[in-house]
User: What shape does this take?
Amino acid sequence: MPEPRGSVVHQPKRCAKERVRLLLLGLAVVDVQDRVVAALRDAGLSDVQARLSIAPVHQVIPHSVLAEIEAFVRLFDRITTREAWQTTVTVDAAEVARVARPETCFFSAWDFHVPPDRPSEWQLVEFNDNGSGFLLAALLNRHHFELGNVAQRGSIEAPASYDSFAAKLLAMIRAEGEAFFGEPLHGPVLILDDRESMQVGRFRQELVLLQRICRAAGWISEIASPSETKWDGKCLFHDDTPIRFVVNRSTDFLWEGEEFSAVRAAYESRSVYVAPNPFTYSTRSDKRLLEWLSTQVRDSEVGILPEERKFLGAHVPETRLLREENVDELVSQRDSLFFKPCHGFASHGLLPGARVGRTRLRRLLKKGHAYVAQRSAPKSRLSTSDGVELWVDLRVWAYRGERFLLSGRASRKPDGLDLSPPGGWLATYAESLPNRDDER
Assistant: This one.
């Protein structure tokens, strides 16, 4: 998977011709990077490189690995939509999250680590029903493919053009609207996010791109915070416009804030489509569910079959909810663990095991901060043209069991998500299926 190293700094004994070649290679990489960044800014993502870094490398995922991951995604969907699973995992959930809902989020993302020397041992590290970056990834993959001469490599599956990707996105929104309302969606589409994220969030411009796509389809579409909505007992409004379809980007996953009162009332009336929502979060995204997926102690209750357990056991690292009774055990194993907040996002609150002790864990419990401890899963590695090593993850976007987008992030640290340059969001491609004639 990793691209070959091409370091000028660490090759002092190379001949002059080779040093010149490597220097030119480095200049070419910089030129490609500049052109990709310019194209992303022209597309409406002006924060790229200013607040949203793009890595100067790309990754290619073997088709055999992707085939297994796609099968895993379908298994994940089957398990988490079963009545036994949904009923059991929501027993202690907030009241608003206990009632089953039919919505399926169209920007769901699965995050994986793929070891460089053992790619078949890939691991799911978490699932996000509210993943940012899907429009950035679509644009980045296409521009890097075209401007970085990646298209010349016949072994790579060509990513969709942005127009084609936008059309696919609209098809998913239409499918969700028709499934929920029993008739074609006529709009309006409200894109909801927290006020602070709308003003300074790294992906606020992605909201505008989604709004443009919806408006191009002929729908009224606005971007608003929850506090800008009103409920009159029959209908949800933004300004004077009645709203029936809500794309929810808020990180208040369980809608505990008072500003969500109107959205919550509309949701409970079942007159408004909202995805993701507290039910999808509590049955799919809450990180404490990784304990249920990675261990077999609740299989009989939630309906996980033996053959499903075998697949899960191979690809979900052991994850345990932090409890008073397991503090000492987890501290004794901390060198091989990461500690994650159950309701965290964008790596906020992530604690490498080396930074954790009994006092800190008990303090988290006392303050009511829910955490899980997850067995470390090695990432893949790439090197930039000047020899900087980056640790890379894989994000797979899928809708109703079908993969439609790949992405990745390159971190400067192996035990965190430092996306400062040269790290950042990473162009990611699928290896194309081998040509049968070539195999012969």
The chain has 15 helices and 19 strands.
